[in-house]
Specification:
By secondary structure, this protein is of the alpha/beta class. The chain is built from five helices and 27 strands. The structure holds 2-acetamido-2-deoxy-beta-D-glucopyranose (NAG) (3 copies). The site of one 2-acetamido-2-deoxy-beta-D-glucopyranose (NAG) has 5 residues, from loops.
Amino acid sequence: MERSLQWSRPASLLLFAAAFLAAAAVASAGYNPDPLSVVNHFNRAVQRSTSPRRTLSEKKKKGKYSGPCLATNPIDRCWRCRKDWATDRQRLARCAKGFGRETTGGLGGKIYIVTDPSDDYKNPVPGTLRWGVVQLEPLWIIFARDMIINTTQEIVIQSNKTIDGRGAQVHLADGGSLTIQNQRNIIIHNLHIHDIKKTTGGDVAVSPNHFTPRTKADGDGVSLFNATNVWIDHLSMALCEDGMVDVVAASTAITISNCHLTNHNDVMLFGANDNTPEDKVIQVTVAFNHFGRGLVQRMPRCRYGFFHVVNNDYTHWLMYAIGGSSNPTIISQGNRYIAPPNMAAKQARLLLVIPH
Ligand SMILES: *[C@@H]1O[C@H](CO)[C@@H](O)[C@H](O)[C@H]1NC(C)=O
Ligand SMILES: *[C@@H]1O[C@H](CO)[C@@H](O)[C@H](O)[C@H]1NC(C)=O
Ligand SMILES: *[C@@H]1O[C@H](CO)[C@@H](O)[C@H](O)[C@H]1NC(C)=O
């Protein structure tokens, strides 16, 4: 099926896209005027990394695999089985693929170590996660040990940050979401995010020594609002009150990969309503995720933008998997869909026609 990897469009559409693109480029430098080139680039990387059949058959023979480290997709292959991952953490900044591939996060910044799981949302202290994410300089944020951070309110992240949970079991739980608003270049990697609740709002730290009143938040796991260049990788997420990952308000250049999602209703919302044509710039790659037990709908639910949903494993859904309205372009490739044993929910894809 080599040929199906290449996508092309009639020239008139390309011209239209180019004109639209020129206008949009001003608004957000992360927007890619040629999204099909990103799709093809991604697919070539997958092809290159899936050649050694030998490892796959070895894996099958042994039942539950207990051999040497395996990385089976091009993102993980970039860092995962390297002995020096803990001393060369910033290598991860070169590993993103898809629309978020230019995301470098805290590359070049200092390593900041979270040692304190407490969370004072108004006046965070050094050593806490919240203190690190509000700094203006690039930071590569890691964790000294396993911890549970009860997020008292939304954690508002400044540009040029990596939150790198590798080497520790870090849970963000029982409180506010991770929020990226009007910021760019952020990697969020290897965290458990669950039991996120609506928050009442209040004075929340947004930059060093500065807090601002924030209104109540819906209780998303990760909330992207006018965010550019964000890579979300290896998150384990469950039970958030609103969306798990919401990408709204003309956010673009996003990759969501290698996540394991369970027990949730509205999983991923890309574009929040049908009256925001500015969301045409939204471009998201959703790849190598496992949509698991107890998920209901929106994996993802798309509006306006361009979405590459590729090589995900859907083992459960209660209503539908992928949905769209307002002329989104959704390229769904190489996904595995196992429909639920409910005749009313056998459709993996749902086209939502919204009457005006
Ligand atoms: C977080 O909250 C839970 C339940 O509210 C509590 O059991 C736990 O001790 C809290 N953890 C921290 C680090 O404060
Ligand atoms: C992020 O880093 C880039 C590259 O170093 C820099 O140009 C930019 O100003 C930084 N952004 C912010 C908001 O600090
Ligand atoms: C979006 O965020 C950028 C900074 O990344 C800012 O310059 C711009 O004004 C924001 N756009 C809106 C509509 O708030």
